[in-house]
Amino acid sequence: MVTISQFEFRLLIALVLGTTIGFERQWRHKMAGVKTNALVSLGSALFILLAAKITGDNSSSARIAAQIVTGIGFLGAGAIMKEGFNVSGLNTAATIWCSGAVGCLAGLGFWYEASIGTFFVIISHLVLRPVENRIEKRTNSKNGNSLYRLTIKCSLLVKDDVRESIFKSIAVHHNLKVSTYNVEFVTEQNVNIEIMLKVIDKPDEDILLINNTINQLKDIQLIKWENVD
Predict the structure, then answer these.
(1) Which of 42, 120, 145, 217 has the fewest CB atoms nearer than 10 Å to its CB?
(2) What is the CB neighbour count within 10 angstroms for residue 215?
(3) Does residue 126 sit in the same domain as residue 186?
(4) What is the tally of structural domains in the chain?
């Protein structure tokens, strides 16, 4: 019968819980998926266990945990992108931060607390996203605005060109304002770009001009507009 040590058990818990968080992110084609969250959780647990091994007790684990929080903060900052007045990647950065916290708990042997933390991270993504969208729609309707979703499927090679063309087009059309901007990696070569746009007035002419601009680029597979009000 094969048995595992307490050290191995804690690492296994950290890996499993980090993978669980990453699975939900990978399912939604986010940048930080299974491997990233699993490694962040596992690495956090390793640092916690390293501190205990060096000193022979868990008293130094609190200091190591504080350094882990700082280190993951820099890692999360790399996932945040600013496009004009819009910032994307905040959810990804926050999820990486949570994975680090789960790994720290697992490394300290608090596997139950780590499991509960993982559960609430996943629930937050599944439940709060539709709530956020509903609040956004209600706010726009009160302000007399419409909300449109622009979805573009394209090659990874032209992703930056698409982004630049869209923001240049929107800059000259004052009836359109960017609400959110997200990029999802479908495969290693293709991405989905999803943009939520607030429309102040009738957007037909503006939509036509943006479509014409995007269609001039190469490797555009799909352009789709939806009124989500």
Answers:
(1) 120
(2) 9
(3) no
(4) 2
